[in-house]
């Protein structure tokens, strides 16, 4: 395979183009389903981020509570809040908007806050999940795929017993 197409454009393998958009989004990076520990769907039809249905969570900060819409695209930090103002560096609680259950902690984040788990199936399976840091503005405060989470924590030695056995 050549590096350039007939028009001399750079060929970028494995990035699928979205119909007309100016930016390309790899479909593999878009979260299509995620759930609270009780199996409630956190993907919400009313949230639209760059043409995809977004993730809607309840957020709590002290006595204040509101909603937060997140981009379902891994690595995209876009988020919108409703009824609550958040500022950079604050640690917030993330809950299911349906049953109010706090989303479980996956592991501590580098920044001292927590990496919060959103499950990709209805069974609360930590092997099939995505994560997000609960500190506003943290470099991990965007959706991370399970494989990325695993790599972050394996590097830090917090997931033990896998090295050399895979
Ligand atoms: Zn729920
Ligand atoms: Zn963090």
Describe this structure in words.
This protein is mainly beta. Helix content is 6%, strand content 28%. It has one helix and eight strands. The protein has one helix spanning 146-155, and strands at residues 43-49, 52-61, 64-70, 79-82, 93-95, 105-108, 114-119, 129-133. Strands 1, 2, 3, 4 and 5 form a five-stranded antiparallel sheet that branches. The longest helix has 10 residues, at 146-155. It is globular, with a radius of gyration of 18 Å. It binds zinc ion (ZN) (2 copies).
Write the layout of secondary structure elements.
Blueprint: E1 43-49, E2 52-61, E3 64-70, E4 79-82, E5 93-95, E6 105-108, E7 114-119, E8 129-133, H1 146-155
Antiparallel strand pairs: 1-2, 2-3, 2-5, 3-4, 6-7, 7-8
